Amino acid sequence: MTIEILERGTFVEFRAFGATTKEEIVQVSWDYHRETPKRLCVWDFRQANVSALKAENFKTLEVQGAEIASFRGNGARNAILLRDTTETVLASAFSGMTNAVSKVENEVFLDRDEAIAWLTDASG
After folding, report:
1. Tag placement on the chain: N or C end, fewer CB within 10 Å?
2. Which residues contact 121 (CB under 8 A, 6 or more apart)?
């Protein structure tokens, strides 16, 4: 998989292409936030294959995501963008689990404009 990083002013966008692994997601996030922490992120998986992300990987992603959250500060958010509803079931389960243990709020979307609106909504 390839992950492209795009600076978008108030947020950063990570665009994934191809097969997705938890190791690459964690490494890219860790490397980026350690050097240039951003409170707001879009994870765009619309051109990626997320089927390799299994439920048993959630605990690892939760723990490592909580460690990365320490760089991002209060009010950190991830908008997770997917291409279809079949992918949202797994991503929503992950999002619910991580929201329970991490300071970073996660939400799943199919529409990019809705994702960015939620991400940048200061009242949320």
Report:
1. C
2. none
Q: Which amino acid is present at 48?
A: A
pLDDT in tens, 32-68: 999 999 999 999 999 988 766 655 555 556 666 677 8
Q: Which amino acid is at 99?
A: N
Joined together, the tokens standing for residue 47 give: 């051109």
| Torsion (CA) 68, 93, 59, 70 in degrees, nearest 10 | 20
Give residues with Cβ within 8 angstroms of 88, minimum separation 6: 82, 108, 110
How far apart, in whole angstroms, are the C-alpha atoms of residue 94 and residue 54?
10
Q: What angle do CA 4, 6, 11 make, to 5 degrees?
A: 130
Q: Contact, 51 vs 89, CB < 8 A? A: no
Tokens of 122: 């200061």
Nearest alpha-carbon partner for 17 in 53, 45, 36, 57: 45
Report the C-alpha gap between 81 and 115 in whole angstroms. 7
Q: CA-CA distance, 64 to 79, in Å (whole number)?
A: 18
